[in-house]
Design brief:
Helix content is about 30%, strand content about 25%. The protein has a single domain, classed as Penicillin V Acylase, Chain A. The protein is built from 12 helices and 15 strands. The protein is globular and about 55 Å long. It has an 8-stranded mixed beta sheet with strand order 1-4-5-6-7-8-9-10. A 7-stranded antiparallel beta sheet has the order 11-2-3-12-13-14-15, covered by helices on one side. Helix 3 packs across helix 6, helix 5 packs across helix 6 and helix 8 runs antiparallel to helix 9. The chain is an alpha+beta fold. InterPro entries: C45_proenzyme-like (IPR047794), Peptidase_C45 (IPR047801), Peptidase_C45_hydrolase (IPR005079). Keywords: Acyltransferase, Transferase. GO terms for molecular function: acyltransferase activity.
Length: about 375
């Protein structure tokens, strides 16, 4: 996998994205057309109508991103409404369909780590893209996500990173759609601004955003788990430098306001993740990406494990697999991606921004064996 560099105005960024990945974006629309029909009984035309209700929320909370969406549509030869619908896919479908992602933030020996597996429908595997976005009005950032979407998981040149866990819930209110909010977080200059996207702008449907920053804090950085929804988010503070999350709500401030419907494997995966991070990593001394990818490759309780593989016992429309793994060293502004399952990937894509004291465009980009 290679990274796609995008730069210029919002419109220019969008058009370049659309042109570079037109085929993948069209395939994504086909995937979500099937998913909407499988889970909520909507065809694509009906899903486009549903997405229109979120347009005023984006106009109010992040109007600049609409120019980029219009550019993506133009570059890919599609309608704006198609791209809007794609970027609101969580709000349309996650009342019934939830992902299986496992995420953690870890502060150790002056380094702030952020990592996760992204588990989703297998038919999106080849629609995963890595984007390097250098806009005129925002920090340079790296986003790993789905073609045609404005953001998902990544980091920016200031050492702000974000991970995502899907939450299945019937709640949907006022606020930014999940993927639009993720992009606004990735454009944040500092931790306070990133957290404000959840606490001030709000997010219209439940999810978990794991936000971390290289900026000084306990044990080398800062991290917060934010269980977002239209109200005040539940907040999870680090314990021993660690925040972990899977696909259920557990901050009291969120659970007292929102009902979620997690799959049965979410809590066992969280317990396993906690156990691995506390027992397998050395109490002192440096650790690296390899040790963290090993944790993301764990198969305990397979096929419902942290590293998720094909499960023939599930109905076809509910089968999920790990589509990518990412480990971010926010202190060094370095992101390493393994496309596909981390236990099987034989190469990694590594991106690093310049010197942390003088952030700027990426310093190096390479495929590592």
């Amino acid at each position: 996998m290679h990274i796609t560099p995008l730069s210029g105005s919002r419109t220019e960024i969008g058009e370049a994205h659309g042109r570079a990945h037109a085929g993948l974006i069209t395939h994504s629309l086909e995937v979500y057309d099937r998913l909407f029909q499988d889970f909520v009984g909507l065809d694509w035309a009906a899903a486009r109508q549903t997405a229109e209700r979120f347009l005023p929320m984006i106009e109010r909370g992040f109007p600049a991103i609409l120019a980029e969406m219009e550019g993506i549509a133009r570059g890919a030869g599609l309608d704006f409404e198609d791209i809007l619908t794609l970027n609101c896919r969580s709000e349309i479908s996650l009342t019934q369909a939830s992902g299986g992602c496992s995420a953690f933030a870890l502060a150790r020996d002056g380094t702030q780590w952020l990592a996760q597996n992204w588990d989703w429908r297998t038919d999106q595997l080849h629609n995963v893209v890595a984007l390097e976005i250098s806009g005129l009005d925002a920090p340079a950032l790296i986003s790993i996500g789905e073609a045609g979407m404005v953001a998902k998981i990544g980091m920016n040149e200031h050492g702000i990173g974000v991970c995502l866990n899907a939450i299945r819930s019937r709640t949907c209110g006022e606020g930014l759609p999940i993927h639009v909010a993720l992009r606004k977080i990735l454009e944040s200059p500092d931790m306070e601004s990133a957290v404000a996207v959840a606490s001030r702008d709000r997010v219209c449907s439940p999810a978990h955003f794991l936000i971390a920053s290289a900026q000084a804090g306990n044990e080398g950085g800062q991290a917060a788990g934010l269980e977002v929804h239209p109200g005040e988010p539940g907040r999870l503070a680090p314990e021993g430098g660690l925040v972990t999350h899977t696909n259920h709500l557990y901050a009291r401030a969120a659970t007292c306001q929102v009902e979620d419907f997690p799959r049965p494997d979410s809590r066992p995966r969280l317990a396993r993740l906690d156990s691995l991070l506390r027992e397998r990593l050395p109490a002192e001394g440096e650790i690296g990406e390899g040790e963290l990818f090993a944790i993301l490759s764990d198969h305990d309780n397979a096929p419902l494990s942290i590293c998720r593989h094909f499960n023939p016992d599930q109905p076809p429309e509910e089968r999920m697999e790990t589509l990518f793994s990412v480990v971010m060293d926010l202190t060094r502004r370095r992101l390493t991606l393994r496309h596909g399952k981390p236990c099987e990937s034989d190469e990694s894509l590594t991106v690093q921004f310049g010197d942390a004291s003088a952030p700027g465009r990426r310093q190096s980009l390479e495929d590592e064996p």
